[in-house]
Amino acid sequence: MSTEIRVPQLPESVADATLVAWHKQPGDAIRRDENLADLETDKVVLEVPAPANGIVRELRVVSGTVVTSGQVLAVIEEGPAAARAAPAVKPAATAKATAPAPVPAAAATEQGRDAGKLAPSVRRLV
């Protein structure tokens, strides 16, 4: 099932917005509530979230375009068709993605030098 993504209701006294950036491109998988695009008005920057899980099928507006409330921005395909169209993840690719990255020698030296200065919780992040 196709779902049209529309410009949300703009704040009071704001007539239009500019589409600043797309965060997804046609063919990309998208999850419900994930940010699809950013709209900028003279007062705020609004995020346009996806209403459902699916695949981005079409972008109908290019970045930099001035849009108004209710205008169609994009179309996503949701449901079983989207699940079949989603790229399969290979088990080998998953194993590589979850393996810890090696620490470069320079970073290891910095961690050792700053180890006494950083809180334990911060050291785990570095």
Notes on the protein architecture:
- This protein has 126 residues and is an alpha+beta fold.
- The strands form two sheets. A four-stranded antiparallel β-sheet has the order 1-8-6-3. The protein has a four-stranded antiparallel β-sheet with strand order 5-4-2-7, with no helix packed on it.
- Helices cover 24% and strands 30% of the residues.
- The chain is built from four helices and eight strands, in the order ββββββββαααα.
- Strand 4 and strand 5 form a beta hairpin.
- The radius of gyration is 21 Å and the shape is extended.
- The termini are far apart.
- The chain has two domains: 84 residues, RNA polymerase II/Efflux pump adaptor protein, barrel-sandwich hybrid domain (OB fold (Dihydrolipoamide Acetyltransferase, E2P)), CATH 2.40.50.100; 35 residues, no CATH class.
